[in-house]
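Continuing the batch. This is chain 6 of the set; chains 1 through 5 are on the previous pages. Same settings as before, nothing changed between runs. Recording input and output for traceability.
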Amino acid sequence: MKTVMIVDDEIDVIEKVKSFLEDEDYKVVTATNSRKALELIDGDKEDDFGLILIDTSIPSSEKSSLFSMKPKSKIKMDNMDDFLQKPFTKEQLLEFVKKRI
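Output for chain 6:
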């Protein structure tokens, strides 16, 4: 089972994403801020996560989105394929996650 971390300060977004992913048998860990996320990752535990979804803004835009990253990867935020613009449907989220895990 793949584990996905969701980092977002909006509880309703966390609950929606968590529900969508758990329906597809993903294990989900959540954090409402970056400090909590870093505590969960804490060194060697980083490999436990197949994907981390982080609430952020799209560069050069005022729109909010989820940014995807794999642990221990070099972050390049210039690739627009790594962003899922909010709001999104369950199908859009699942396709987005499946392509990145």
